[in-house]
Design a protein that fits this description.
The structure holds two protein chains of two kinds. A three-stranded antiparallel β-sheet of chain A has the order 1-2-7. Chain A has a two-stranded antiparallel ribbon with strand order 3-4. In chain A, strands 5-6 form a two-stranded antiparallel ribbon. The radius of gyration of chain A is 30 Å and the shape is extended. By secondary structure, chain A is mainly alpha-helical. Chain B is an all-alpha fold. Chain B has three domains: 31 residues, no CATH class; 65 residues, no CATH class; 205 residues, MetI-like (MetI-like fold). Chain B contains 17 helices and two strands. Chain B has a two-stranded antiparallel ribbon. The longest helix of chain B is centred in the middle third of the chain and has 30 residues. Chain B is globular. The chains are: A mainly alpha, B mainly alpha. At the A-B interface, helix 2, helix 4, helix 5 and helix 12 of A face helix 2, helix 10, helix 11, helix 15 and helix 17 of B.
């Protein structure tokens, strides 16, 4: 028995790079050293620069008096409030634009995406023009253009004055569109409106229960109730009925002209309308493309199989195509919502006070705390986007085709 | 036999199809009026198009090109476009405040740009790739001016470093690691000891100078192009490296890449541009301050590199794992298999995403107007601030929008063409 003697390998320095056993560790150690030294260099520079300028890192300015006004606010704020509260007002304004923008963008985008697939040549071409037009022109240009449109082509409030005014209110004399903004009627909550709201919530719950019942019924007996119409009836009828039984507790307060401006009603500034509209139109073009490609991604065999089973086109869409297409559509759609939220930081172009305008704008300039303000601002946007990525990941996990 | 009456002996001559089935009418029936919903949509669309064009066409077609101010325009005809502003200010919209007598420089740079991207886009010219490599230097020298020798010296440094690496590896048979270290060492030594005297010497012997242009004189589409194209060119390789890092097996490298990508993608570009304009000086050694355009380019590059990395990662993830395994089985090293097997396929899959990122980057160059650089959108408000043109909106916006549309739409059409051309499977 002669045993083969393996040559004992002695460790050489070159093996750190040449030998696969050590290489990954070497590379990582080098990467780590470079990373740490870059970070150290940046922090060191910052500390030196701050010392040179005689500044320090201090967030206490957030609790000091802000001293400036914000024209659009969702929570009470005066110029005696703190910088922190101003930042909060800005955050809420950003979220408001993002929320409303996402809703409008989704509605328009889904329509545009489906219509672009229409067999109708003119409609399909029109939607292509819409999509290409909005996708290929910068969002900033759209924001300033729509703002200019709203301020240039709408009448001043005094045009509504007089016996024979140049301009008139729209929607049954309820809404005034002026070059300062739009005035909508505002609801007045009278006695008993609590009950009405309660009834409305109850009818929403009833719709939910009814749909579950209808689904169970269909699965057990195959009987198919007209779900849509019954839901619609439950949505409207009880609320309307009780509105009259309670004697009309909720009424609308119309804006009216007093002096040279409108009074009462809900006043929405042009800056807000322009920003929201531009963001949602721009994003809707992207959503339209996502919806279209999502529907096209479902193979034609699915449609053919469904129609050979005897399903009507509308049911094919609802039961076969959309559930599968949603899996493709939703993740990029959410990331487009995120883009909309980030693009809302362009509010400064029309003077809307979002978080970049308050915290990253006036507060930054007044206090001279660039580093702290920018850190907080980036932190806010980062939080929003990390939350949204968490949602996307959750969605991807829960909608994956099981067993693949 | 043959007199059975009901047998037709002669063939009926072919009759033309019924009028409703002839080409144009059938097309209209099938495409536009196939049902009540479809007919309604058609009528609505036609009406919509009519409403849009009814006001726009007379406005644009009758536009006044010769007036000297918006007053004169309004005097001639207040209902039509006043394109005179474009006639009067097109130089600014294109070049910003670049000196008029030096316009040949950006124009030459622009022409050379096409020559330099030809080798990348058209395989037949691939052997002229060296020009694409030296183009950035030429462009910087042409646009900013000054002496040619600093630019030349940087290129000399890079080629000499390459030479040192090559010699160390092949002549002196050193391992790659040591050759690499030697080359890097040489690179720094060159800049410490040789570059200064070299530049001074050649400036004295052979002064080739162009008029120096300040960065603040750049503007208009020239600025958009500079920021856009430098960002595109620089973000592509960085994006590939980040994507590879994110897919890597090395946990630490992966962590750094993921952190970087998620951070950049999580914040709006405008905050990064603000960092470039206000904060960057904090992060650099005290006393350094460099050009605002370069700062903007750095931020734009970082921004789009993160997006590029995600797009390329999508392409990498779409490749079947068998490709990695097969290339490993052939004995290819990591970089070889990336270069020869993985990347060509992954990049092909991600072409639409890459081009979309480019288009997004190009559109985002308008954001520099918010940190008061004079890109076209910034110039539009500047021109409006002039008393002669105060009150002009649409003419400028239409012109700027059209320019952007042509560039971006062209890019997206090219990407679709490329996608079709490179398609090798049958699906």
């Amino acid at each position: 028995m002669s045993s083969v003697k393996l040559p004992v390998e002695k460790f050489r320095l070159g093996m750190l790079l040449g030998d696969t056993r050590y290489r990954s560790t070497t590379v990582q150690v080098i990467a780590f050293i470079i990373f740490v030294s870059v970070v150290f260099w940046l922090v060191d520079n910052t500390v030196k620069n701050l010392a040179l300028l005689g500044k320090d890192v201090d967030f206490s300015y957030l609790w000091m008096r802000a001293g400036y006004d914000i024209n659009q606010r969702l929570i009470p704020y005066t110029n005696d409030s703190t910088h922190g509260r101003a930042a909060l007002v800005g955050i809420l304004n950003t979220l408001l634009v993002a929320f409303i923008g996402c809703i409008i963008a989704t509605i328009i985008g889904v329509f545009v995406g489906i219509l672009r697939l229409s067999k109708n040549w003119i409609v399909a071409k029109l939607m292509s023009v819409y999509i290409e037009g909005f996708r290929n022109i910068p969002i900033l240009l759209w924001i300033v253009m729509i703002f200019a449109l709203l301020t240039e082509f709408t009448p001043a409030p005094r045009a509504f004055k007089g016996a024979d005014p140049e301009a008139s209110m729209i929607f049954f004399q309820s809404t005034a569109v002026t070059n300062r903004g739009a005035y909508f009627p505002s609801p007045v909550w009278g006695d008993g409106s609590v009950y009405l709201i309660l009834i409305f919530i109850l009818s929403l719950a009833a719709i939910f229960l009814f749909r579950r019942y209808a689904k169970n019924l269909q699965e057990e007996t195959g009987k198919n109730l007209p779900k849509f119409w019954i839901s619609l009836a439950i949505f409207f009828i009880p609320s309307i009925l009780f509105y009259f039984i309670l004697g009309g507790p909720v009424s609308l307060e119309y804006p009216y002209l007093k002096g040279f401006n409108f009074k009462d009603g809900i006043y929405v500034r042009n800056s807000f309308i322009a920003l929201t509209l531009a963001l949602s139109l721009y994003t809707s073009a992207f959503i339209g493309e996502i919806v279209r490609s999502g529907i096209l991604a479902i193979s034609k065999g699915q449609t053919e199989a469904a129609s050979s089973l005897g399903l009507r086109p509308s049911r094919i869409m609802n039961l076969i195509i959309l559930p599968q297409a949603l899996r493709v559509i939703v993740p990029p759609m959410i990331s487009n919502y995120l883009n909309l939220t980030k693009n809302s930081s362009l509010a400064i172009a029309v003077g809307y006070m979002d978080v970049r305008g308050t915290l990253g704008g006036i507060t930054l300039n007044q206090t001279g705390r660039e580093l702290e303000s920018m850190l907080l601002l980036m932190g806010f946007y980062l939080c929003v986007s990390l939350c949204v990525s968490a949602i996307i990941n959750y969605f991807n996990r829960s909608f994956q085709i099981k067993g693949l | 036999m043959s007199n059975i009456s009901f047998v037709r002996e002669k063939e009926i001559p072919q009759s033309p199809p019924p009028i409703t089935e002839s080409n144009a009418i059938r097309w209209v029936r099938q495409n536009l009026f196939s049902g009540w919903l479809n007919s309604l949509l058609t009528i609505l669309s036609v009406y919509f198009i009519y409403v849009c064009l009814r006001d726009f066409i007379p406005w644009a077609y009758g536009g006044i090109w010769t007036a000297n101010s918006i007053r004169e325009c309004l005097d001639i005809n207040p209902d039509v476009a006043c394109f005179s502003v474009i006639g009067a200010r097109w130089r600014q919209l294109l070049f910003g405040f670049y000196p008029t007598e030096e316009y040949w420089r950006p124009i030459l740079t622009f022409v050379l740009l096409f020559i330099s991207i030809a080798p990348v886009l058209i395989p037949r010219f691939a052997r002229f790739f060296w020009f694409s490599l030296i183009y950035p230097g030429i462009a910087v020298w042409l646009l900013w001016g000054g002496s040619i020798w600093p630019v030349f010296s940087i290129y000399l440094a890079i080629s000499l470093t390459g030479l040192v690496f090559f010699l160390a590896k092949n002549k002196f048979k050193l391992s790659s690691g040591f050759s690499f270290t030697a080359a890097i060492l040489f690179f720094f030594l060159y800049f410490i000891f040789i570059a200064g005297p070299f530049i001074a010497l050649f400036k004295y012997i052979l002064p080739i100078n162009l008029v120096l242009i300040e960065s603040l004189q750049f503007g208009g589409f020239l600025l958009s192009m500079i920021v856009g194209f430098s960002g595109i060119a620089a973000s592509f390789p960085i994006g590939i490296l980040l994507a590879l890092g994110r897919q890597s097996d090395l946990p630490l490298v992966k962590m750094i890449c993921v952190g970087f990508i998620e951070f950049i993608r999580g914040v709006p570009l405008i905050t990064l541009l603000f960092v470039a304009s206000v904060l960057l000086n904090y992060f650099l050694p005290p006393g350094t301050s460099f050009d605002i355009i370069i700062r903007v380019i750095i931020m734009v590059t970082i921004f789009s590199a993160a997006y590029m990395a995600e797009v390329i990662r999508g392409g990498l993830a779409a490749l079947p794992v068998g490709q990695h395994e097969a290339s490993a089985a052939l004995g290819l090293s990591y970089w070889q298999s990336q270069r020869l097997i993985i990347m060509p396929q992954a990049l092909k899959i991600s072409i639409p995403g890459i081009v979309n990122t480019f288009i997004g980057l190009f559109k985002d160059t308008t954001l520099v107007s918010i940190i008061s650089l004079l890109d076209p959108v910034g110039l539009a408000s500047l021109i409006r601030a002039d008393q002669k043109w105060n009150g002009i909106y649409w003419e400028l916006y239409v012109a700027i929008g059209l320019m952007f549309f042509i560039c971006c739409f062209g890019m997206s059409q090219y990407s679709q063409y490329l996608e079709r051309k490179l398609k090798t499977d049958n699906s």
